[in-house]
Amino acid sequence: MGSTKDVSKNATEGRLNVSITETGQVTGTGDKTYDLIWYTEKCLDNALRLETYIADAERDGDQQVADLFRKAQADSRKGAEMAKQLLAQRL
Question: Polar residues compositional bias: what residue ranges (predicted)?
Fold first, then answer.
């Protein structure tokens, strides 16, 4: 498998937009491993972001919204933990 490249010109800024589907030749990291790393980072980032949302809801006295964000935060942590376990088995 090789990588594919889509190059398009951004007319308003005069810059090239390059989209690369990389299968490990450039980074040395296969798609599956890269995807697991990406997913882990996004789950952890989401858990941190939700901390702010929880505080916002609590500050406004909306416990129902705060509880929703807590559940979402727990789900994000769980997703990150599951992905970390899979990474540990594969690295």
Answer: 1-11, 18-30
Q: Residues near 76 by Cβ (< 8 Å), separated by ≥ 6? A: 43, 44, 46, 47, 50
Collapsed DSSP state (helix, strand, coil) of residue 21: strand
Cα 51 from Cα 48, distance rounded (Å): 5
Query: Could you list the residue range(s) of the whole structural domain that residue 31 is in?
Result: 4-90
**Total tally of structural domains belonging to the chain:** 1
Structure tokens at 57: 């809801």
Q: Kindly report, residue by residue over 36-87, the tens digit of the pLDDT.
A: 999 999 999 999 999 999 999 999 999 999 999 999 999 999 999 999 999 9
